[in-house]
Amino acid sequence: MDWSKTKSIFIMVFFILNIFLLYQYLEKRDNNQYELITEASIDEMLKGDEVTYDPLPKSTMKEQFLIAQSKVFTKDDTKKLSNQQIKMNDPTKLVGIFDKPLSISQSVQSAELEQLLKDYIWNGSDYQYWSYDEQNSTIVFYQHWDKKMFFNNSKGKVTLYLNKNQQVISYEQTYLEKIEKFKKPKELVSAIKAIETLYINGDIQPKSHITKVELGYYNSLQTTSATHLLAPTWRVVVNDKLDLFVNAFDKSVIELNTEEKILE
Question: Rounded to two decimals, what is the model's pTM?
Fold first, then answer.
């Protein structure tokens, strides 16, 4: 065996490997520096227009789509529900009418309402308070999974109806079940990138304060079947009033008052 030749080959291989590793290191370092520069420029842009925000969620995250199905309710599901009459004209929607109206606080406390759901609604602990519409006398909750809410999703929703005495007299319920993660994990755009997208889009006005940013899911594909695809989505709350949504995979802004966004 020609050891001299073998030695030369090994030296060459190690030399090429070192060059490759050095290239990867420099590329990673440059990418990290670019991210820092980009985030710094976003901050400067927002500060220039006096847009402020509270501490943001971690930026380095990976998530997957979710796939779920609309639950078909049965009479067995309603057997343990007390103080109510149930109607199921649509098998994917429960309509409950309380025999004795349920009194709630005038100030509408989310913790109190969520306990009411646990006591009187099928799988009520799977829903989280969303909003109170005083004009229409309704209170809305959306389903959540793995500590993340299904934003603006009519297929995983509870609506409470109130009378003039601030009592709950009835409700409607839909539910998503057989929830599974779908496709490979993908890196999410950061919360600050979602804010930048909304700012450039003109949705965040100068001198605004971003009071909350959280990750949840939004319907990404709606079909005529009972199967639903949900995409990770940033919810950005401006001045404690305006809810804005950004797809956490591609940074696309989800239009308000729409539930379906077709996945291309």
Answer: 0.80
